[in-house]
Amino acid sequence: MGYKQELKRELSLLQNFGVSFSIISIITGIPSLFSYGLNAGGPAVMVWGWIIVSCTTMLVGLAMAEICSAHPTSGGPYYWAAMLAKPESAPLASWITGWFNLLGQVAVTTGISFACANFLSTVAEFGTSFVPTPETTIGIYAAVLISQGLINTFGVHLLKYLNNVSVWWHSLGTTSIVIAILARAPKHQSANFVFRTFIDGTGVNGNEGWGTRASHAYVCVIGILMAQYTLTGYDASAHMTEETHNAAMAGSVGIIMAIGVSAVLGWFLILGLLFSIQNLETTISSPTGEPVAQIFLDTVGEKGAIVLMILVIGAMYFCGTFSVTSNSRMMFAFARDGGIPGHKFFRKVDAQRGNPVRTVWLACTLSFCLALPSLGSSVAFSAATSIATIGLYISYGIPIALRVIYRERFVRGPFHLGAFSMPVAIGAVTWISFIAIAFILPQANPVNSQTLNYSIVCVGIVILYSVGFWLISARKWFSGPIRQISAEEMGVSKILESEVSDDKRAKSS
Questions:
Q1: Is-contact 137 144, C-beta < 8 A?
Q2: Distance of alpha carbon 288 from its chain centroid, rounded?
Q3: Residues 6+ apart with CB under 8 A from 446
Q4: Rounded to whole angstroms, how far apart are CA atoms 143 and 114?
Q5: At what angle do helices 42-70 and 77-84 cross, to 10 degrees?
Q6: Average pLDDT of the chain?
Q7: In sequence order, what are the residues at sequence separation of 6 or more whose Cβ sits closer than 8 angstroms to the Cβ of residue 269?
Q8: Sign of the C-alpha dihedral computed for residues 492, 494, 495 and 499 taken in this order
Q9: Could you tell me if 343 and 86 are in contact, meaning their C-beta atoms sit under 8 angstroms apart?
Q10: How far is it, in rounded angstroms, from Cα 273 to Cα 279?
């Protein structure tokens, strides 16, 4: 791919799959947005929406896997965009894709680790007088991020072992939770409730919901956020390819396996939770603040609920840890190519540990900042998940769209779809275009400072910054992914060359 091998190549196919599987983390996405799902469409949208989203996500994953096989680097989508666009437009395509991927990476880490903090706050209420506040939750969130940053700094050699533990934790944990709540539930909901009940709880403070103000279709559209947010982050397999053996196949297979296994286990978990609801009103308005915690309390009692909550929190923690890993690798790759402010500082790899420590802490810092609106917004968490979904999927969609537009430029790798390549890619781009619009729509009625879906603000800032800075400055110096090896073979390192130029300019001034 034209890069030095700076990161240690220690991961197997199973471990590459494990990173994406852990970041998708159905035990993170589904419980953390279960309340949102119950209010935005209810059981029917949660069950059938999951199937629809799983199928469309597999289209996106297959299209990405084909490109990943041809270009297995830690840069992932932004590198692919540069390789698939025409030479004259490659830097711009890479620049825009990189910034959307960075936005999505930061937001998905926020969503995961903030959910972990929320569930830690919830379980701390069991049998105690502790009452969580936004301030205590943000403090717990900071502690979670710091610990995950420390693991990614000093325990990077342990990540592959934690990866193996995480895969089994998620698989056996999901199975254990479903079996426990179904077996101990005093009663079970009917199939009619699970598969056909529609709920519009999008109105707040006694106001009408979007089903009345707009239509039930609108509620269904915004209701699939739970499924689509959960099935996100599988580009981690691409970001870890420079640390994976047989990267051209392992990265692609890792993406597809992560989506497929998560889709099956996720539907299993949704059905188990819905059938185990004892009282719908109590579950939705649970004093714990988390409907899943209420389901645990109603089915297995307080002590059993603590055990199941530990399984969920453990999965969330693993998920957040590997999200920071993936996030830092993307930032490192983008910095290596000069794509972020301070790139000379952030592109350094720690010589002793063989990992990009500086971008680990950049990822943690930005993720913390993105959660600060939770101190004054009742929909901050769902907005963060919208940002994650939109940012990541737009960064997935740009290289796939370029694959369709400039199909003659694509040189396939060992994994390819043959005759299905174009139909799959077109289907993937169509779906991404749809959700990019759907998830910036208002999620609660009425819209005010407390209920604003601020994803449109964050996405707008990234668009204005990336396009504006490109026009003002970046187009003059950002050339896209730098091929270090090719440059050094000619006796010139582009990175060093740019530094020398900067030094000359500084001296002359």
A1: no
A2: 26
A3: 204, 207
A4: 11
A5: 60
A6: 88
A7: 26, 27, 30, 174, 177, 178
A8: positive
A9: no
A10: 12
